[in-house]
Write a structure and sequence with these properties.
Helix content is 36%, strand content 15%. The chain is an alpha/beta fold. Helix 4 links the parallel strand 4 and strand 5. Helix 2 packs parallel to helix 3.
Amino acid sequence: MPGADPSLRILVVEDDPVVLRVYERRIARWPMNPRVVTAGNGYEALVRIGLGKPDLLITDLHMPEMDGFQMLRQLRKMSELADVTIVVVTGLDPADIEARGGIPEGIPVLPKPIPFDRLRDIATVLAARKQQHTPPKTRLHAPGAHTRFPE
């Protein structure tokens, strides 16, 4: 993949600005040094995804404007985003989630308070997987090889 970025990209979607700052500060201490982008609702998240696909999407469900339920349904319709790992972190209980139509199959739901250790474990696995699949940034004059330019 030309121009592949070896750093882990994380998008956090949460409507509470204080909680977003907590996410940013805690994730900044993770050993894989991920790049974090935030969004305050589902609409903003979809725009951010269009600007740069994340490796990991961490989202709340209960948000104004476009909530996490609507956003997740839209994301699952886009085959080009099938490889994005999605994790829901919510204060809603399973009955509330089902009453609102549920979420797409295969997306783990973690309860609040935010389980940073579990999220870090997920991110660690993704970062290791990404490092294994990232091609070298440059190949100079190898027969039949395409040149990759440094980022």
